[in-house]
Amino acid sequence: MYIASISERYQKEYVEKLFPLLEIPSVYEKGSQFSYGKPIDDALNYILDLGEKDGFFVKNVNGHAGHIEFGQGEEIIGILGHLDVVPAGDGWETDPFKPVLKEDKIYARGVQDDKGPVMASYMAMKMLKDQGFLPKKKVRLILGTDEERDWKGIEHYFQHEKMPEFGFSPDASFPVIHAEKGLIDAYINFPAAYEHTDYVHSFTSGDRLNMVPDVAKAVLHLSSDVSSKYNNFLKEKAVTGDFFVEGSFIHLTLNGEAAHASTPEKGVNAALYLLEFLLEAGLNKKHQAAVQQLVASFHSVTGEGIDCAIHDEPSGVLTCNLGSVHWVNGKKCEAGVNIRYPVTYESDHVIGKLQLLASKEGAELIIHDHLQALYIEKEHPNVQTLLKVYNDVTGESAEPLSMGGATYARSLNSGVAFGALFKDSPDFAHQKNEHVRMEDMKKAMLIYARSIYELTK
């Protein structure tokens, strides 16, 4: 069996089935009767209903996850994607939850991460099924619901369902990602140094550690020259911002540029810039020391500031992102950090460096989350199968890659990330105006269909 191209019929069907999924604002909601909120539950039910109507076997695993399946045999090939999305944020040129197809691009929150690739995987399964192909292994499209937060949905799923012998996650890029760095989310609390303040009333920036914060705000007790200092600072650093005075306070806003924490060098960290301004504006001795420590520790995105500039051959350099800073009424300062460390290093090495940083200022280190690294040898037979399919479709001679991102492939005993972006694809995950090229999704459908066939024939 050989699928040579994606027909207009399937391209049209892809869009028709994807758009209703994109219209569901499947952002996590706390305190709901549903596991992760009604919108996420709606998204899960939508695609499971779709699969059932198209003749697949489907299963909802207690509202935490689900799967769509066809094929036979004892072995399982898993395709792991997620239906939850990050908040839309501001600054969109279109409504983030009203998908638009224009100039061969689909715009919507979640279209890249991860609903568009999930639907491409689904359509690959449907094309094979429509042509009468019966896999000799079970093919399961496993649908997660809490990937953007704590992975509780996929954890629940594998507590109740069999682990695939091999699988891939269409939540990254091609050709094949055989190594994903270890990931640590941590908070550093400075309660002692921030017990009282005579200058800073509040400071806030960032709400997700896996994003470079694009806005930072501070409320300072007004002094005569702070506004002129701020204007000069913005000009000197070539960043934008504004301020307004209210009573005895001045409210400052500084604009950065968002980026995913796996590639923090692509962003402009608003929190770091505004903290740097506080140092120039003048702080008392205790606050000066702690803020200086934060700026010095995280100004470099490759770990030099925490004495952890490590790297290895399979996965490259460590990256770190100061993802949030919250300091309210002078009571405490909480700094949130996201670190991606090379696959051949132990997490204890990195955590030790963070603990040393915290202890310098009498702060408390809290490890909020830790995902172990993923690493499969490039020569693994299934890795080579996926790679061959990719190279056959694209005409390239690509080799497996590593990345700092985290995909559901880590939840498998044996798995990789596989697409759906190409090396020249626009990458707007977690950003305003998120979009994918229709041509890319069409090519991904073809690659996924051939890959499923090769893995299960």
Residue runs with pLDDT of under 50 for 5 or more positions: 192-197
- How large is the count of helical segments? 10
3D shape = elongated
Number of strands: 24
Provide the spatial order of strands within the biggest beta sheet.
13-14-12-11-17-18-10-19
Mean pLDDT across all residues, rounded? Answer: 93
Helical content, roughly?
25-40%
End-to-end separation = 9 Å
Biggest sheet layout: 8 strands, antiparallel
Rg from alpha-carbon coordinates: 24 Å
| Classification by helices and strands | alpha+beta
Strand proportion: 25-35%
Detailed description of the structure:
The chain is an alpha+beta fold. Helices cover 31% and strands 26% of the residues. The chain is built from 10 helices and 24 strands. It has helices at residues 8-22, 38-53, 115-130, 152-160, 226-237, 270-281, 285-298, 347-360, 381-394, 438-456, and strands at 57-61, 65-70, 76-82, 100-102, 105-107, 138-144, 166-169, 172-173, 177-180, 182-189, 200-205, 215-221, 240-246, 249-255, 311-312, 316-317, 319-328, 333-341, 364-371, 374-375, 401-403, 415-417, 420-421, 435-437. The strands form 6 sheets. Strands 13-14-12-11-17-18-10-19 form an 8-stranded antiparallel β-sheet, with helices on one face. Strands 1-2-6-3-7-22 form a 6-stranded mixed β-sheet, with helices on both faces. A hairpin with a 3-residue loop joins strand 15 (311-312) and strand 16 (316-317). Helix 6 runs antiparallel to helix 7 (285-298). The longest helix has 19 residues, at 438-456. It is elongated, with a radius of gyration of 24 Å. The model is unreliable at 192-197 (pLDDT under 50).
